Amino acid sequence: MSAVRAGSAGPQARIRRRAWTAALAAVAFGCAYFFVRQFLKDAVRRFDATLVNKSFGTASLFLIALSMALTGIAVLSRPGSMALAYRKDLGLAGFWIGLAHGAVEHVLLPVLGLQSESGPGTRHAEALGLVALVLFALMALASNDRARGKMGPRAWRLFLRYAGYAGLILGAAHAAGLKAASWGRYFRTFRPVLPSLSLPVALFAAAAILLRLAVWPRIRKRSGGRPTSASPGP
Ligand code: HEM
């Protein structure tokens, strides 16, 4: 029994480690990107918690979009692809980093006397982010065998599928509500050279949703209408 456990813990632990490595790399990349962009835009060479906060937000949206995109990628890949195995840990990493983003925004920045950019629609956009975070938290709570047993496999899969896509859409709408002016300015002027990182990440989130819609008929055909393991996990 213990030998079986030891054998099966290995691949799972490796997948978790890789997912968190990808998550930390996304945060580090975001910090460097926002620092360089700030320099190009305002000639400011300052690194502070507001840049880390932006990076947490974009990394969270990226990881959750990637987790959802893996469903479509798995359907299009050859049999035996490992894509589905990474969905849960990438989604969980995205949730924890999203939670850190909300906490930095509401707790750390005020303590440090810093403030993120804000505008007339900030309150509504923040509310969308909060609802997305609550959905991801519910998914994280449900992402275990006990919850699966209690809810039944069909309801469990449907919940994870619809909560995941609703959360992703709300997360992208939250970013759009806060950054639409910056994205619009970029498309009009192409200045600064680098757009806000949230722009390509939100486009990636939209692509993940479109990909899922595109493979929907294939998944339905394979499963005869029943939810399958290609349904997205948290
Ligand atoms: C309690 C929940 C949340 C609050 C209060 C919140 C608040 C904020 C604020 C104030 C900003 C503007 C930061 C700035 O421009 O300096 C922001 C940006 C952003 N947030 Fe959130 N957020 C929350 C949850 C989330 C979640 C769950 C996601 C991802 C799924 C997310 C993704 C983003 C993204 C992508 C940006 C744009 C970063 C940029 O390009 O500057 N947020 N958020």
* Unreliable spans: 1-7, 230-234
Major sheet, described briefly? none
In total, the number of strands is: 0
What is the helix content? Answer: over 70%
Distinct small molecules:
protoporphyrin IX containing FE
Query: What is the average of the pLDDT values?
Result: 91
| Count, helices | 7
The oligomeric state of the chains shown is: single chain
Secondary-structure content class? mainly alpha
Q: Any idea of the CATH topology? A: Four Helix Bundle (Hemerythrin (Met), subunit A)
Return the string of H and E elements.
Answer: HHHHHHH
* Integer tally of domains: 1
Q: Using the 3D structure, state the CATH architecture.
A: Up-down Bundle
Describe the structure in your own words.
The protein is built from seven helices and no strands. The N terminus and C terminus are likely disordered. The relative contact order is 0.14. It is globular, with a radius of gyration of 19 Å. It has a single domain, classed as Up-down Bundle (Four Helix Bundle (Hemerythrin (Met), subunit A)), CATH 1.20.120. The chain is mainly α and 234 residues long. 79% of the residues lie in helices and 0% in strands. It binds protoporphyrin IX containing FE. Protoporphyrin IX containing FE binds next to α2, α3, α4, α6 and α7. The site of protoporphyrin IX containing FE has 28 residues, from α2, α3, α4, α6 and α7.
